[in-house]
Design a protein that fits this description.
This protein is α/β, with parallel strands linked by helices and about 475 residues long. It has two domains: about 325 residues, no CATH class; about 80 residues, no CATH class. It is about 60% helix and about 5% strand. It is built from 19 helices and seven strands. α19 links the parallel β3 and β4.
């Protein structure tokens, strides 16, 4: 009799809420990771300049999309700029929560015959390795970018299936916000998903309706309007995206391509663990045979269409796939719902163990790897530099992650002084941070070995 009892809806709810709360664990513990210092720096400089449309880095305007920085600025004003490191991560966590909610609503609609589908989809998403342990909380733009892209695709699915113009307009709003969060690749993923939906659902007639066409054209015009009226003259919002795309294709040999083609989907599968690996194990051991109905086939084809541009390259990083994990959650949910009660309980036990693993991972394992080992403490170096420079100007020629993290900490620790800016060679009587040994900058004050890099501090007396 016990073997016929399905996990309860209450269990799904508790596990989902626990996974959501545990997303917050690394926020106050970790120092800046990777590009987080850059993101904090850009947000603070926007706030100081009072210019909320043009992000800047070390005083130089960059044609990056600004939308992600707006909630960071709002949260930092609320909790204090000295906690901007928490603010940038909190924005990512909230984006992950919203993605889980959207996955839940979409699953409840797509698999409406099962009342637990919505909570299960949200749980699957929040428990994924890539989301729970890394990009779901990390202070990068990717979580919000992925949130808006998934919301746009999920809403577009319902719009096309029901020929509903209101939902179609909402999906266009979501994809426009995705563009304003990061870059124009959002439109490519949205367009490929739309073509798959029109083909599979046989809704080509929608293209003949003037309101759908007009709304679509207006949404596609958003990047052009942004480029024409917001981006500074001589800059281009698409430059970074195009350069990044070309770097993934140019300069690689046949073996590089072959290795990437073989490993990329495997990496994608592993980063969606634990449920992806659990279901794969059941299938490989022939412990369960899955049925791919029209809904699962549609989700799979959208995933394949969106994955393909990164897959055919030689070096597309897994980071590009963050917008696809909401769709993966829907696919895995549809497969999970086919399991018998015994297998379903095993799957929930596996998720529960992964969720609990987040505690030692967030509070001990990750801090030890990133911060607690020798030559890893960015804060102590930033404090020492701030003490040495005192009231003298502090400039920089260090734009690697460690240098940007140091500048980000110092900026918010001494808000009564101007932010650290790039040393152009004009200022005299200033301390200058450098990435490499540069005697021309003046007297070398101190050198630090930090996270695999060197940080040089010079006193530039001038002529």
């Amino acid at each position: 009799m016990f073997n016929t009892i399905q996990p309860s809806l209450t269990l799904y709810r508790y596990l989902t809420l626990t996974a959501a709360v545990f997303m917050l664990l690394p926020l106050p513990v970790m120092q800046y990771v990777g590009e987080e210092g850059l993101m904090a720096l850009k947000s603070y400089e926007m706030f100081v300049r009072g210019d909320y449309l043009h992000p800047s880095i070390l005083g130089a305007i960059w044609p990056h999309s600004p939308f992600w920085h707006w909630p960071v600025i709002s949260i930092s004003k609320l909790i204090g700029w000295q906690h901007v490191d928490i603010a940038i991560r909190l924005v990512s966590v909230m984006a992950s929560w919203l993605t889980a909610i959207m996955a839940g609503f979409t699953a409840a609609w797509a698999f409406r015959e099962r009342q637990e589908a919505g909570w299960l989809a949200a749980l699957v998403f929040l428990s994924m390795g890539e989301i729970s342990f890394w990009y779901g909380w990390l202070g990068y733009v990717d979580a919000m970018f992925g949130c808006f892209i998934f919301a746009a695709i999920a809403t577009l699915w319902r719009a096309i299936e029901g020929r509903h113009f209101g939902r179609f307009a909402l999906s266009l709003l979501f994809i426009s916000l995705a563009f304003l969060t990061k870059n124009i690749t959002a439109y490519a993923l949205f367009g490929m998903s739309g073509l798959v939906l029109l083909w599979q659902l046989k809704r080509w007639s929608i293209l003949k309706k003037p309101q759908f066409l007009l709304a679509g054209l207006l949404a596609l015009a958003v990047p052009m309007f942004w480029q024409s009226f917001v981006v500074p003259a001589g800059a281009n919002t698409a430059t970074t995206s195009i350069n990044d795309a070309l770097r993934n294709f140019i300069g690689y040999g046949p073996l590089d391509y072959l290795k990437h083609w073989l490993t990329y989907p495997i990496i994608f599968l592993f980063r969606a663990m634990p449920i992806s690996l659990f279901l794969l194990w059941l299938w490989l051991r022939r412990k369960h045979r899955f049925d791919i109905d029209k809904r699962l086939l549609l989700i799979s084809m959208i995933l394949l269409a969106c994955l393909l541009p990164f897959w055919v390259s030689a070096n597309g990083t897994p980071r590009y796939l963050i917008p696809l994990y909401g769709l993966v959650a829907l696919l895995l949910t549809g497969l999970l719902l086919q399991l018998n009660p015994v297998r379903m309980r095993q799957g929930m036990l596996l998720i529960g163990l992964v969720v609990l693993l987040k505690i030692p991972y967030s509070l001990a394992i990750l801090p030890y790897i990133k911060d607690w080992r020798p030559e890893r403490d960015v804060k102590i170096v930033a404090e020492e530099i701030m003490h040495i420079s005192a009231d003298d100007p502090l400039l920089t020629r260090n734009d690697v992650s460690t240098g940007l993290a140091i500048a980000a900490y110092i900026d918010v620790w001494r808000q009564d002084k101007p932010p650290v800016t790039w040393y152009s060679g004009q200022t005299q009587g200033a301390y200058v941070l450098a990435e490499v040994e540069t005697p021309s900058l003046g007297k070398l004050v101190k050198v630090w070995r930090l996270r695999g890099d060197h940080v040089y501090l010079y006193w530039h007396k001038g002529k």
